[in-house]
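Morning run. Coffee first, then this:
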Amino acid sequence: MSTIIYPSPIFGPVHSRRLGVSLGINLLPADGKVCTFDCIYCECGFNADRRPALPLPTREEVARQLEIKLKRMNEDGQQPDVLTFAGNGEPTCHPHFAEIIDDTIRLRDHYCPKAKVSVLSNATMLHRPQVCEALMRVDNNILKLDTVDPIYINKVDRPSGRYDVSQIISQMKSFRGHLIIQTMFMRGNLSLPLQGESEGVTTSLDNTGETYVAPWLEAVCDIRPQQVMIYTIDRETPAGGLLKATREQLDAIRDRVIAAGIPCTASY
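And here it is:
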């Protein structure tokens, strides 16, 4: 089981299934993971196994390294399709996230004005006004909503703090359509350990059925995002027993979102 830890603060460019040629901006340490979720499917591994020793990159370091990379790409005749805040955890946790967004937009406008600025976020920091204001300034405000079922969220996304999905949905609605919802669909089983027992209870991880899809779609229609991106597992995961959703399952969910009047893409 291999997992990925990204360089910091700049990595790539890489080819994204959903965004094209993406230059990554990692606001977390280069030697570990910092995240308010501990997803069982995270390509960076479990939080406890990836504790960093290095500090967060500073605002000045991010801007300096981004400018160096964009200059080099220009000299090589390259242009990114997107500058993507992603990497080793939750980018909006950085205390200077809003200021870094402003720096990035300024550098984008100078070196690659056609590129989009995207943020991949799990939406746990939306209670911070400065985070929401910064997300309103980016082109692609991509927020995670894997399900509206609290049990599934606690089992799969595993928030490190209080997570009220109804409050998250309300905060997403406050963007008035300036957001893209991103949802992971998958299948498989997870063995959960019981207290005092060496073996666990096997529980299903399949969120592609009507029990999960119908209430999720209702929430999506209530939020009215500009777009929905649904996807499935693409790389090795820290938890075993996880399986990709099938192409047929993703297509069926995608078609239901489109039928509701919301653009939707499926990545397999």
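The chain is about 30% helix and 20% strand. Good start to the day.
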